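User: New here, any thoughts?
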Amino acid sequence: MARELEPHQLIERSIVKRFRKDIWNPFISAVKRYELIQENDKIAVCISGGKDSMLLAKLMQHLQKYSEVKFDLVYLVMDPGYNAENRKKIEDNARLLNIPIQVFESDIFAVANSTEKSPCYLCARMRRGFLYAKAQELGCNKIALGHHFSDVIETTLIGMFYGSQIQGMMPKLHSTNFEGMELIRPMYCVHEDSIKAWCRYNNLEFIQCACRFTEEYTETDNENGLSKRQEVKELLRELRKTSPDIEKSIFNSIHAVCLDTMPGYKSKGVEHTFLEEYYNE
């Protein structure tokens, strides 16, 4: 008689069976292509409680079991000021998924929500700093975040449309403020639609954006509650109707930037113009 599997084992099996093509393979592809994990790494998997970071935790956990490259993991949850309901939801989901989380607290929401200028930017910067500091304290040399393929595409377009710059989202980065630390994005090649499908298949419910400022902001007259990222999502949805591979084309384009055709670019904070080389040809 076959042994009945635990809920977390069924969820793990779905990743490598039903969603092997759409989630597991793209995850492994990113890890290998961008050389995200090395021997003896100690990686803090940063969990916000949303679908992306929770799936990332399961992917990293499963990879650690079977990888020939030996590395350690810490599952790090920072509570920036969640309400009791969201905090409990994160803890309950961690138990359901068999993820041994470590929780530490901060006052980021209180600080970010007290400023009127770019609270979301401030919150993101503070979150990153707190996570780096705690991970380093725990002996980690990397933090892993749950940004995915769709984040990469949307961020690129937001930069072009609203930031007047062509700027991508890197699969890994050296920290500029925490010596010896790196940031990696192992779900760089995983589509958000696949993550949502995985959640539906396993009847999983995770917290949405738990920021109190965001909740208040969308309730006010904010152009029908649409953020710039939501606007870009809507645009891409429309473009996919006539060009199904539009996102793949954008993704490939940021891997094949031809600087020889650019009138200007910035490298290491320094702006350059095509005129620097033009008269030397």
